[in-house]
Amino acid sequence: MKFAIWGFQSDSEIKSYVGEILSKLLDEGHELFMLDSFAHQIEYNNQDVHIISESGIPRETDFIISIGGDGTLLSAAQAVMRSPIPILGINLGSLGFLTTLERDWRSGLDEILKGHYRIEERMVLNCRLEFEDGTEETLWALNDVVIERADVFNLLATEVRVGEELLNRYLSDGLIFSTPTGSTAYALSAGGPIVDPSLEAISITPISPHTLSVRPVVLRGDNSIYVTLSNSEGRAHLHVDGKNTRHIDGSLRIRIRPSSYRIQLVVTPDNTFYDKLRKKLNWGQRSS
Fold first, then answer.
1. Farthest CA pair distance, the chain
2. Tens digits of per-residue pLDDT, 149-164?
3. pLDDT grade, residue 7 (50/70/90)?
4. pLDDT > 60? residue 288
5. In sequence order, which residues have a C-beta less than 8 Å from that of residue 241 and are 6 or more positions away?
6. Which pTM does this prediction carry?
7. What is the pLDDT of residue 12?
8. What is the pLDDT, as a whole number, of residue 287?
9. Which residues partner with 172 through β-bridges?
10. Residue 111, exposed/middle/buried by CB under 10 A (0-12, 13-18, 19+)?
């Protein structure tokens, strides 16, 4: 099998785990590729591992193995957004909602190499920036699209339409537009709902809204959502999966809708969303 090793963090623990994982895969005869920036960070130099750029992942790669946390997996998702390459996440971070294996990855990886796994397809958001001069830019999000105020002294005024129908004019610190996958990320900390990742839905969660009656809303996944800044002189920051940041103003319109792309996650048979919720959020456990 062919595996691409993905990461962007470096410490003694990660170096140790990466070395052990690569040794195991090489010993079993698999062909390995590694992101050049990651290899440089962890000072890895083995002629049996092909060093590649972010755009150089072979299309016939069986899995990308993301080693780190959810942020690492999100960056891998951006790299394969247009390619149907499944991602296997090994969590060396903190929470790890998107990753499949934890620090005791050995038995789980053995089972996956034996073919005991399933593929989960996750919804992706298409975020199109429509500029006043007619030009456009398109970004994609596995987790969320976040619009936050740029002026710390003033609330952000936004108008949100679902299709042609006005949903609301918000005064807030910002808005989070999330997929079901992203419902357990920033949106959750802002008071948004947890959404089963098998659903096709888009959640809109206001960040510290001026009016307490303004609540999160979950929309059907086939909607197109249009966002503009109510003040033509307004300024804001747009973040896509916490990585791709754009400075925006009232001269453009943002369209958010489901993408035709899907991200494929490698999941062990016993790794269910509900089980992960209980474990990661410590549901059902008494506080000491």
1. 61
2. 998 889 999 999 999 9
3. very high
4. no
5. 74, 77, 78, 141, 142, 143, 144
6. 0.94
7. 86
8. 62
9. 156
10. middle
Give dist(CA 183, CA 204) in Å, integer. 10
Q: Two tokens at 23?
A: 């040794």
Q: Which two tokens stand for residue 198?
A: 């098998």
- Classify domain 123-261 by CATH architecture: Sandwich (2.60)
CA neighbor of 124 nearest in space, from 175, 177, 164, 190: 177
Region 2-117+268-280: CATH code: 3.40.50.10330
Residue 104 burial class via C-beta count within 10 angstroms: exposed 0-12, middle 13-18, buried 19 and up: exposed
Whole-angstrom distance, CA of residue 204 vs CA of residue 219: 8
Amino acid at 214: V
Tokens, residue 89: 């996440």
Domain chopping of the chain, boundaries:
2-117+268-280, 123-261
Overall average pLDDT of the 124-144 stretch = 97
Instruction: Tell me which of 70, 110, 173, 196 is the catalytic residue.
Output: 70
Q: What are the residues whose beta carbons fall under 8 Å from the beta carbon of 148, sequence distance 6 or more?
A: 156, 173, 174, 207, 236, 237, 239
Q: Which residues contact 159 (CB under 8 A, 6 or more apart)?
A: 166, 168, 169, 170, 227, 228, 229, 230
On the question of pLDDT at 9 being above 70, the answer is yes
What is d(CA 222, CA 167) in angstroms, rounded to the nearest whole number?
Answer: 16
Told to judge if 70 belongs to the known catalytic residues of this protein, a careful annotator would answer yes
Q: What is the mean pLDDT of the chain?
A: 94
Residue closest to 101 by CA, chosen among 76, 73, 74: 73
